Give the backbone structure.
Amino acid sequence: MKVKGKDWFLIQILAYVFLGILTIIALYPFACLFTSSFSSEHAMINYGMRLIPKEFSLDAYRTVFKRPEQIGKAYMVTIGVTVIGTGISLFVSSMTAYVLFRKELYYRNQLAFILYFTELFNGGLASYYIIVCKNLHLKNTYLVMILVPLFSVFNILVLRNFIKSSIPYSLIDSSRIDGASSFGIFFRIVLPLSKPALASIGLFIALGYWNDWWTAMMFVEKKNMYPLQYTLYRMLSTAQISSAASENAAVINTPTETLKLAMTVVATGPIIFLYPFVQKYFVAGITIGSVKE
Amino acid sequence: MKNKQKNQRGRITLWQDIKANKMLYLMFLPAFVWFGVFRYYPMAGIIVAFKRFNYRAGIFGSPWNGFDNFAYFFKSGKAWLVTKNTILYNLVFLAVYIIGATLVAILLSEVGNKIFRKLTQTILFLPYFVSWVVLASLVYRVFDYDTGIINMIRGFFSLDPLNISTDPKVWRILLPVLYGFKWIGYGSILFLSAIMGLDRSCYEAAEIDGATVFQRIRYITLPLLRPTSITLILLGVGKIMRGDFDMFYQLIGNNGLLMDSTDIIDTLVFRSLMGNSDFGMASSAAFYQSILCFVIIITVNNLVKKVDEDSALF
């Protein structure tokens, strides 16, 4: 067994203390959010967000679930957009990645550059907004929420690098000799062999859709079409009641501040709940991305 | 299989390539169409910066007005302010991200207890998953003037309470801190995987030679992490004119009191476009941003190519 010197103990202490403090800072707001959503409105207004609420109450959740139409609809929109968007994005991104990987294509690097160039230069927000609304007529459609965040050059290039590094080209050649078509090779060989990368990239895409409020803010004006994050934003950004101005608010029965917390929990809960199970795919995804060709 | 026909010079024309690989080109088509419509079409629309835009006539039908929009943008006094804010914040963010992520990754790699390491990594990565919509509302509660924990702690040390919704100066510190809060967990995974991929034999040799833990970090780990840092710095410098709109908009919103120290190009363009329908300001500022961004990326990449071919982005 190795002898552990003074310096080893020093770095251990340093690491535990420093990382410990960071962990508490990272966890504290989320823990408070969760516990305070079970606080009474009165305690919330007078004492703010606390790790252990002074008065316990389920009023906020009762209010959320008494009229579940708004949040329910927002959930449906977000789930629909996320599922359809992620499906299309993942399929087409990996198909494109596969095309860019095929050596038979003489112009594959030029094709990749057509995509990559959009990372270097873009038309800017003003032009984008006018084109999407005025020329493409996509305002106030569900389609816009699927189409706008659909592709990222980064994901396509990461997938191409993954395919390059994990699928031997001889496999492609031998399938071609057996008479498989280009699409057949992609669908029956490349896709199944890319499962680990697809899981990771797919989760990144899904997270992007789930957390997207920007597209709705820019291009959707109809309240009943708002996705979850934008609904939440609209709700949270209504003026916060300062504790001084609302001494009497505690008497009123409808919770407002705790309702915001409860809504945040309901909207964010699934992500945080799923997070420990899917985290390893995200970690893998970051690592695939760092592989340089 | 049909062999490719090369012409006399040994080059293949695009048409020959398409004919020989019809299906592959067909499979490229969906992405090609999307990038055409959602990326290249708006690029053509950038000419709106030289037009007096009128919604009914659209970008291509509106009359030209030369450099009027730019004159207006630069005379407004906003141009310098937002440029300065965008660049300075991005530089500080980049420094916070790289130094923070490296530090956390090194400490994580040294921690002996596996469970602690996993747990810490999981928790530090959590803010990455939560949208700025939620994070911003949490920030305002944690920093609440009367009841927030930060002001309670400040009160304990007899410091004046901070009022983040009226004090612009606080944000110069707060924004980098929050950026670190959101991104250091993500970055540390990147650096940790780089550390795990380093050659163990260097460390073993150093240990035999009696190097301390700190000497190992200083003379082995840090130098070997340099390529990863350089790539990240390059990517960051390339995007130095593009601000993190999600973060700034959710945290600051349209709070005029904070604008002087927090307005960036992206928020200015957005407010001009959606708030005041001031297309002249929006389009000239957006044009200015796109062009500067492009010039910076090309310059940085060419400089890097001269110094070290392998580190270049393209």
